[in-house]
Design goal:
two-stranded antiparallel sheet; about 0% strand; globular; about 75% helix
Protein backbone atom coordinates (compact mmCIF):
# COMPACT_ATOMS: atom_id res chain seq x y z
CA UNK A 1 0.00 0.00 0.00
CA UNK A 2 2.88 2.37 0.76
CA UNK A 3 4.30 2.04 -2.74
CA UNK A 4 0.85 2.60 -4.24
CA UNK A 5 0.35 5.72 -2.10
CA UNK A 6 3.77 7.02 -3.11
CA UNK A 7 3.02 6.52 -6.80
CA UNK A 8 -0.36 8.23 -6.46
CA UNK A 9 1.13 11.19 -4.60
CA UNK A 10 3.77 11.65 -7.30
CA UNK A 11 1.01 11.54 -9.92
CA UNK A 12 -1.02 14.18 -8.06
CA UNK A 13 1.98 16.51 -7.87
CA UNK A 14 2.71 16.04 -11.55
CA UNK A 15 -0.89 16.83 -12.48
CA UNK A 16 -1.09 19.92 -10.28
CA UNK A 17 2.32 21.51 -10.81
CA UNK A 18 0.80 24.90 -11.56
CA UNK A 19 -0.85 25.20 -8.15
CA UNK A 20 1.78 23.51 -6.01
CA UNK A 21 5.07 24.22 -7.80
CA UNK A 22 4.92 26.99 -10.39
CA UNK A 23 2.55 29.43 -8.64
CA UNK A 24 4.42 29.64 -5.30
CA UNK A 25 7.74 29.68 -7.16
CA UNK A 26 6.77 32.68 -9.29
CA UNK A 27 5.30 34.49 -6.28
CA UNK A 28 8.52 33.95 -4.33
CA UNK A 29 10.65 35.15 -7.27
CA UNK A 30 8.52 38.29 -7.64
CA UNK A 31 8.77 38.98 -3.91
CA UNK A 32 12.54 38.45 -3.99
CA UNK A 33 12.84 40.90 -6.89
CA UNK A 34 10.69 43.53 -5.13
CA UNK A 35 12.58 43.22 -1.85
CA UNK A 36 15.98 43.46 -3.53
CA UNK A 37 14.79 46.43 -5.60
CA UNK A 38 13.65 48.31 -2.51
CA UNK A 39 16.86 47.79 -0.56
CA UNK A 40 19.07 48.59 -3.55
CA UNK A 41 17.15 51.79 -4.26
CA UNK A 42 15.23 50.66 -7.30
CA UNK A 43 11.71 51.28 -5.97
CA UNK A 44 9.59 52.19 -2.95
CA UNK A 45 6.24 50.80 -1.82
CA UNK A 46 4.22 53.34 0.14
CA UNK A 47 0.48 53.20 0.85
CA UNK A 48 -1.78 54.44 3.64
CA UNK A 49 -1.53 51.07 5.37
CA UNK A 50 1.95 49.93 4.38
CA UNK A 51 5.38 51.50 4.06
CA UNK A 52 8.25 49.54 2.55
CA UNK A 53 10.98 52.02 1.73
CA UNK A 54 14.59 52.70 2.60
CA UNK A 55 13.57 56.28 3.41
CA UNK A 56 12.03 54.86 6.58
CA UNK A 57 15.48 54.44 8.14
CA UNK A 58 16.13 57.93 9.53
CA UNK A 59 18.43 58.85 12.40
CA UNK A 60 15.84 57.97 15.03
CA UNK A 61 15.33 54.49 13.58
CA UNK A 62 19.09 54.04 13.27
CA UNK A 63 19.59 54.74 16.98
CA UNK A 64 16.69 52.50 17.94
CA UNK A 65 18.11 49.62 15.92
CA UNK A 66 21.56 50.05 17.43
CA UNK A 67 20.23 50.05 21.00
CA UNK A 68 17.57 47.35 20.74
CA UNK A 69 18.03 44.26 22.90
CA UNK A 70 18.92 40.91 21.37
CA UNK A 71 15.58 39.39 22.40
CA UNK A 72 13.60 42.22 20.79
CA UNK A 73 15.79 42.03 17.70
CA UNK A 74 15.03 38.34 17.27
CA UNK A 75 11.30 39.03 17.62
CA UNK A 76 11.48 41.84 15.03
CA UNK A 77 13.35 39.69 12.52
CA UNK A 78 11.01 36.74 13.03
CA UNK A 79 7.91 38.90 12.59
CA UNK A 80 9.28 40.60 9.49
CA UNK A 81 10.19 37.33 7.80
CA UNK A 82 6.84 35.81 8.73
CA UNK A 83 4.93 38.71 7.16
CA UNK A 84 7.04 38.46 3.99
CA UNK A 85 6.02 34.83 3.56
CA UNK A 86 2.26 35.47 3.74
CA UNK A 87 1.77 35.93 -0.04
CA UNK A 88 3.35 32.53 -0.68
CA UNK A 89 1.17 30.87 1.96
CA UNK A 90 -1.95 32.54 0.58
CA UNK A 91 -1.08 31.38 -2.93
CA UNK A 92 -0.64 27.79 -1.79
CA UNK A 93 -3.76 28.02 0.37
CA UNK A 94 -5.92 29.03 -2.58
CA UNK A 95 -4.26 26.31 -4.62
CA UNK A 96 -5.21 23.71 -2.01
CA UNK A 97 -8.80 24.94 -1.93
CA UNK A 98 -9.05 24.72 -5.72
CA UNK A 99 -7.42 21.29 -5.70
CA UNK A 100 -9.76 19.98 -3.01
CA UNK A 101 -12.84 21.16 -4.88
CA UNK A 102 -11.77 19.89 -8.29
CA UNK A 103 -9.83 16.69 -7.65
CA UNK A 104 -12.85 14.34 -7.49
CA UNK A 105 -15.05 16.52 -9.66
CA UNK A 106 -12.56 16.37 -12.53
CA UNK A 107 -12.48 12.58 -12.60
CA UNK A 108 -16.27 12.60 -12.97
CA UNK A 109 -16.21 15.32 -15.58
CA UNK A 110 -13.66 13.68 -17.87
CA UNK A 111 -14.85 10.16 -16.95
CA UNK A 112 -11.39 9.14 -15.80
CA UNK A 113 -13.11 7.64 -12.76
CA UNK A 114 -13.91 4.64 -14.94
CA UNK A 115 -10.21 4.17 -15.67
CA UNK A 116 -9.10 4.56 -12.03
CA UNK A 117 -11.68 2.00 -10.95
CA UNK A 118 -10.14 -0.49 -13.37
CA UNK A 119 -6.89 -0.35 -11.40
CA UNK A 120 -6.26 -2.44 -8.26
CA UNK A 121 -6.46 0.65 -6.05
CA UNK A 122 -9.16 1.00 -3.40
CA UNK A 123 -11.23 4.15 -2.98
CA UNK A 124 -9.80 4.55 0.52
CA UNK A 125 -6.23 4.53 -0.82
CA UNK A 126 -7.15 7.13 -3.42
CA UNK A 127 -8.76 9.40 -0.84
CA UNK A 128 -5.85 8.99 1.60
CA UNK A 129 -3.35 9.93 -1.11
CA UNK A 130 -5.17 13.24 -1.55
CA UNK A 131 -5.34 13.77 2.21
CA UNK A 132 -1.58 13.27 2.43
CA UNK A 133 -1.10 15.80 -0.38
CA UNK A 134 -3.08 18.42 1.54
CA UNK A 135 -1.75 17.75 5.04
CA UNK A 136 1.88 16.66 4.57
CA UNK A 137 3.31 17.06 1.08
CA UNK A 138 2.25 20.53 -0.06
CA UNK A 139 3.08 22.24 3.29
CA UNK A 140 6.54 20.68 3.02
CA UNK A 141 6.94 21.72 -0.62
CA UNK A 142 6.40 25.39 0.19
CA UNK A 143 9.31 25.57 2.64
CA UNK A 144 12.11 26.02 0.00
CA UNK A 145 10.30 29.06 -1.41
CA UNK A 146 9.96 30.60 2.04
CA UNK A 147 13.63 29.92 2.81
CA UNK A 148 14.69 31.47 -0.52
CA UNK A 149 12.62 34.58 0.23
CA UNK A 150 14.07 34.86 3.73
CA UNK A 151 17.66 34.55 2.52
CA UNK A 152 17.18 37.17 -0.20
CA UNK A 153 15.49 39.54 2.26
CA UNK A 154 18.18 39.04 4.90
CA UNK A 155 21.03 39.50 2.43
CA UNK A 156 19.51 42.58 0.75
CA UNK A 157 18.69 44.26 4.05
CA UNK A 158 22.11 43.45 5.53
CA UNK A 159 23.92 44.96 2.55
CA UNK A 160 21.78 48.10 2.78
CA UNK A 161 22.32 48.45 6.55
CA UNK A 162 26.08 47.95 6.27
CA UNK A 163 26.65 50.29 3.31
CA UNK A 164 24.59 53.05 4.95
CA UNK A 165 26.22 52.70 8.39
CA UNK A 166 22.92 51.87 10.08
CA UNK A 167 24.03 48.63 11.71
CA UNK A 168 26.66 46.03 10.87
CA UNK A 169 26.17 43.39 8.17
CA UNK A 170 25.80 40.69 10.83
CA UNK A 171 23.14 42.58 12.83
CA UNK A 172 20.28 40.70 11.18
CA UNK A 173 22.06 37.39 10.77
CA UNK A 174 22.74 37.22 14.49
CA UNK A 175 18.98 37.16 15.01
CA UNK A 176 18.20 34.68 12.25
CA UNK A 177 17.29 31.38 13.88
CA UNK A 178 17.68 28.53 11.37
CA UNK A 179 15.67 26.19 13.60
CA UNK A 180 12.67 28.39 12.79
CA UNK A 181 12.57 26.51 9.49
CA UNK A 182 11.47 23.42 11.42
CA UNK A 183 8.99 25.40 13.47
CA UNK A 184 7.45 26.70 10.26
CA UNK A 185 7.20 23.16 8.88
CA UNK A 186 5.46 21.83 11.98
CA UNK A 187 3.23 24.89 12.16
CA UNK A 188 2.12 24.42 8.55
CA UNK A 189 1.44 20.74 9.18
CA UNK A 190 -0.64 21.73 12.20
CA UNK A 191 -2.47 24.30 10.08
CA UNK A 192 -3.23 21.70 7.44
CA UNK A 193 -4.69 19.35 10.06
CA UNK A 194 -6.64 22.25 11.59
CA UNK A 195 -8.17 23.20 8.22
CA UNK A 196 -8.54 19.60 7.00
CA UNK A 197 -12.34 19.47 7.54
CA UNK A 198 -12.77 22.32 5.06
CA UNK A 199 -10.57 20.66 2.44
CA UNK A 200 -12.41 17.35 2.88
CA UNK A 201 -15.80 19.03 2.65
CA UNK A 202 -14.76 20.50 -0.72
CA UNK A 203 -13.61 17.04 -1.82
CA UNK A 204 -16.95 15.56 -0.75
CA UNK A 205 -18.79 18.22 -2.75
CA UNK A 206 -16.77 17.18 -5.77
CA UNK A 207 -17.83 13.56 -5.38
CA UNK A 208 -21.61 14.10 -5.36
CA UNK A 209 -22.60 17.52 -6.69
CA UNK A 210 -23.36 18.21 -10.32
CA UNK A 211 -22.07 21.72 -9.64
CA UNK A 212 -19.31 21.32 -7.01
CA UNK A 213 -19.13 25.02 -6.08
CA UNK A 214 -22.85 25.10 -5.31
CA UNK A 215 -22.57 21.75 -3.57
CA UNK A 216 -19.84 23.13 -1.32
CA UNK A 217 -21.57 26.42 -0.48
CA UNK A 218 -25.31 25.74 -0.31
CA UNK A 219 -25.46 23.05 2.45
CA UNK A 220 -23.34 25.07 4.95
CA UNK A 221 -25.41 28.19 4.24
CA UNK A 222 -28.60 26.26 4.88
CA UNK A 223 -27.17 24.85 8.13
CA UNK A 224 -26.06 28.30 9.28
CA UNK A 225 -29.51 29.78 8.58
CA UNK A 226 -31.40 26.89 10.23
CA UNK A 227 -29.15 26.96 13.28
CA UNK A 228 -29.69 30.68 13.68
CA UNK A 229 -33.46 30.40 13.30
CA UNK A 230 -34.01 27.29 15.43
CA UNK A 231 -31.27 27.39 18.08
CA UNK A 232 -30.29 31.08 17.96
CA UNK A 233 -26.62 30.07 17.78
CA UNK A 234 -23.89 30.30 15.14
CA UNK A 235 -21.62 27.34 15.91
CA UNK A 236 -21.36 26.21 12.28
CA UNK A 237 -20.30 29.67 11.11
CA UNK A 238 -17.77 29.99 13.92
CA UNK A 239 -16.36 26.55 13.09
CA UNK A 240 -15.86 27.53 9.45
CA UNK A 241 -14.36 30.91 10.30
CA UNK A 242 -11.90 29.38 12.78
CA UNK A 243 -10.80 26.67 10.34
CA UNK A 244 -10.17 29.24 7.61
CA UNK A 245 -7.93 31.30 9.88
CA UNK A 246 -4.62 30.46 11.56
CA UNK A 247 -5.01 27.91 14.33
CA UNK A 248 -2.88 29.94 16.76
CA UNK A 249 -5.35 32.83 16.51
CA UNK A 250 -8.58 30.84 16.72
CA UNK A 251 -11.13 31.43 19.45
CA UNK A 252 -10.57 27.96 20.88
CA UNK A 253 -6.77 28.27 21.22
CA UNK A 254 -5.89 28.71 24.94
CA UNK A 255 -3.25 31.40 24.32
CA UNK A 256 -3.95 34.83 22.91
CA UNK A 257 -1.20 36.52 20.90
CA UNK A 258 -1.49 40.21 20.16
CA UNK A 259 1.35 40.21 17.66
CA UNK A 260 2.11 38.15 14.57
CA UNK A 261 4.78 35.65 15.51
CA UNK A 262 6.35 32.29 14.77
CA UNK A 263 4.67 29.78 17.04
CA UNK A 264 6.62 27.62 19.46
CA UNK A 265 6.60 23.83 19.35
CA UNK A 266 4.90 23.95 22.74
CA UNK A 267 2.04 25.86 21.09
CA UNK A 268 1.56 23.02 18.61
CA UNK A 269 1.48 20.50 21.44
CA UNK A 270 -1.05 22.75 23.18
CA UNK A 271 -3.18 22.73 20.03
CA UNK A 272 -3.20 18.93 20.07
CA UNK A 273 -4.55 19.02 23.63
CA UNK A 274 -7.59 21.12 22.74
CA UNK A 275 -11.06 19.71 22.26
CA UNK A 276 -11.60 21.82 19.12
CA UNK A 277 -8.66 20.16 17.35
CA UNK A 278 -9.95 16.65 17.97
CA UNK A 279 -13.47 17.65 16.97
CA UNK A 280 -11.94 18.66 13.65
CA UNK A 281 -10.10 15.34 13.37
CA UNK A 282 -13.32 13.45 14.12
CA UNK A 283 -15.15 15.50 11.49
CA UNK A 284 -12.32 14.73 9.05
CA UNK A 285 -12.61 10.98 9.67
CA UNK A 286 -16.37 11.15 9.04
CA UNK A 287 -15.84 13.16 5.87
CA UNK A 288 -13.22 10.70 4.60
CA UNK A 289 -15.69 7.87 5.16
CA UNK A 290 -18.34 9.88 3.32
CA UNK A 291 -16.05 10.54 0.37
CA UNK A 292 -15.07 6.88 0.12
CA UNK A 293 -18.71 5.79 0.27
CA UNK A 294 -20.00 8.29 -2.29
CA UNK A 295 -17.09 7.70 -4.68
CA UNK A 296 -17.40 3.91 -4.45
CA UNK A 297 -21.15 4.03 -5.10
CA UNK A 298 -21.08 6.72 -7.73
CA UNK A 299 -22.55 5.42 -10.96
CA UNK A 300 -23.07 8.83 -12.54
CA UNK A 301 -19.59 9.56 -13.83
CA UNK A 302 -20.47 12.79 -15.60
CA UNK A 303 -20.87 16.26 -14.14
CA UNK A 304 -21.91 19.57 -15.62
Amino acid sequence: MIQVLKAMIVREIQEHKVAFVYAPFFVSIILCFVIASVYFGGTNIQTDQFNFSTEYYDEEIRQAMQSVSSVSRIDIVRTGLLVLGFPILLTVGFGLLAYSLSTFADERKDRSLIFWRSLPVSDLTTVLSKVFIVTLIVPLMVIPYIILLQLVAMTSASIFFATNDIVSFGWLWGSYIITDWFRIIFSLWAQALWSLPLFLWLMLAGTYAARPIAGAIVPPVILIVLEGVIFKTNLVLEFIENRIGFWSRSDSFPKEYQEIRVVDISDILLLFSTQAFWIGILASVILVAGIVYVRSSNSDHAID
